[in-house]
Amino acid sequence: MNHDHSKKTPDGASFDRSGSQDSLDELYLDDYWKELENIHETRGNNHEERVALVVKEPDEGELEEEWLKEAGLSDLFGESSGNSQESVVFLSTLTRTQKAAVEKRVETVTQTMRKKNKQHQIPDVRDIFRLQNDSKGKVCDGSEPSTVRTSENKNETQDGTKDLTPIRTVKNWEDCQTAGSAQGKEGMPGACVNKLHDPKFRLGTVEQKSLLEDMPFLDTDINLEISFAEQAANLKDSSVGKMWKGGGGDTLLPNFRLPKDKTGTTKIGDLAPQDMKKVYSLALIELTALYDILGTEFKQQKAVKIKTKDSGLFGVPLSVLLEQDQKKVPGTKIPLIFQKLIAQIEETTLGTEGLLRIPGVATRVKSLCQELEAKFYEGTFNWENVKQHDAASLLKLFIRELPQPLLTVEYLKAFQNVQNLPMKKQQLQALNLLVLLLPEANRDTLKALLEFLQRVIDHRDKNKMTLNNVAMVMAPNLFTFHGFGSKAIEQSEFVMAAGTANVMRFMIRYQKLLWTIPKFIVNQVRKQNAESQKKEKKDKAMKKLLKKMAYDREKHEKQEKTPNDADVPQGVIRVQALHLSKVSMAIQLTEELKAGDIVARFLSQKSGNLQTLKREEVFLYEIGGNIGERCLDDDTYMKDLYQLNPNAEWVIKSKQS
């Protein structure tokens, strides 16, 4: 590839071109182009035939159908539509912008399915979602259904603005069939709706918008309590929003921070797997809603399955690598070769000038790669022969040679499109959601990479590798994935280079924020769990009522009640240390009591296995109630959390247990 550097590069050393490592005012793309040329040379010298990754380009209906499946809402269309109560509960917890995003996809799918399969009855999107605040609307009680707006104006109010009022969902198609004719849609289900919205958890309502306006957040504060899409919708037409327009092109990176949350910050890894599944679905819907509000295209891609290596180190899927590694080191989450290459680079010194930027000798790197393939798992590879720049080249080669990109085929373009969002805060919010969507292996490997890159930058006074330099060097390795070919890159090389390098430096600079699960998503998970528990209790109560076992039920409930329940007064919690100590402790809640204080009390007892553990290994967990399991950070105020989840159990344990 031939780049005209004369147009892009003035005289002067690259390190001195910028007065701040966070500034792009005078940043030129020398490092990016040089890295790209090194990549092409490396691939040109590799005569092994590679199977190109084919990305399927589905039609719009298939694309949205896949989106609904990914969001856990596949039962909103097709033969099983309307049958899942789980989706009913899920939809009841969505914000207005999230529901608008779902409605848009359902409508596209149903229209496509009607065209393809007209003989089948496909639910109308307007029957799946109803406007909750329509005062004329009635539920399935024999009264008249409300009038349905046409598809052209269903989201517009009388003043012409978009109506994103929370929408409701049909409870059961069959029970509502009698009302079908009132909709003017032959064979379509009627206006039966299930009123599931609890004002306490309703997000995106007028009350929440008012809360958003009143909350004393600074411009550099990342508000995790209100949906990102709701914030964008609120700012879009406001004077504040207009003032921020064009902010995405600014050169300085703000010092974004997370305000302290009294109920505790939730990090990836703090929640139980069953709750993380809900987080994934909500993050996908929220990201889509955010992109919709900001007018940016969001399309998932799917790679056609190809034959990949089932053993080895380079060009092997992450899942296969980890399966190999876990046989050697149980519990491994990051490929061993990846860890070793980072350790080898750091072993000499991170102060080496041009680290990551200066490539190793191509022939030697190729030879080392082949030798590693043969000897790494045998433990006979001689690491003394690996020079620092060679190890850095091998690390970048490992990332590039993955059969599918580290940022995944599905979301690579979404990562690239982050640069198109108008405000830096929105770019960071989008990256936060995208990290939540990555598979666990990809996410863990990316985290290890970003932490390593930050350590390189910490030595910038010696190695001359600023945030910008590192971002420029690493962007081609993560974003110019060989399986997609070079056509798209050739069409807009400069924009691609500047944009992906900008996203790269965002990920490095704000990496600690990216692994945080927003509070509004955690609250939606709590709401889903609470609604599911309510339904289960109602079902159980109905069965018992039908069996006329009221007396036995009351007796059974008394037996179920633990002796400790009666002993624990209001404002006191009982904490256990499972597998660590036989002692449980009654703790009086105060305004200032934190989770870390409770852990410290237990550790001071020096009983059981507690005395063998280090302080940083032990945490207080919130279990049950409206959450599956959540590891609490030490700064969580227990009284505030108790009010949010009074039915939880409180357990101290290590993350490894």
TrEMBL record:
Keywords: Cytoplasm, GTPase activation, Phosphoprotein
Residues covered by the Rho-GAP domain: 316-515
GO cellular component, one term: cytoplasm
Keyword Cytoplasm: yes
Protein's name according to its UniProt entry: Rho GTPase-activating protein 18
Originating species: Bubo bubo (Eurasian eagle-owl)
GO biological process, alphabetically ordered: regulation of actin filament polymerization; regulation of small GTPase mediated signal transduction; signal transduction
Coarse class of the protein's main subcellular location: cytoplasm
SMART domains assigned: RhoGAP
Quaternary context: Interacts with MPHOSPH6.
Protein task: Rho GTPase activating protein that suppresses F-actin polymerization by inhibiting Rho. Rho GTPase activating proteins act by converting Rho-type GTPases to an inactive GDP-bound state. Plays a key role in tissue tension and 3D tissue shape by regulating cortical actomyosin network formation. Acts downstream of YAP1 and inhibits actin polymerization, which in turn reduces nuclear localization of YAP1. Regulates cell shape, spreading, and migration.
Gene3D superfamilies xref list: Rho GTPase activation protein
Annotated region (Disordered), positions in chain: 1-21, 136-162
Protein origin, superkingdom: Eukaryota
Compartmental location: Cytoplasm
Endpoints of the signal sequence: none
Any GO MF annotation of the entry: GTPase activator activity
Biased amino acid composition, Basic and acidic residues: 1-10, 151-162
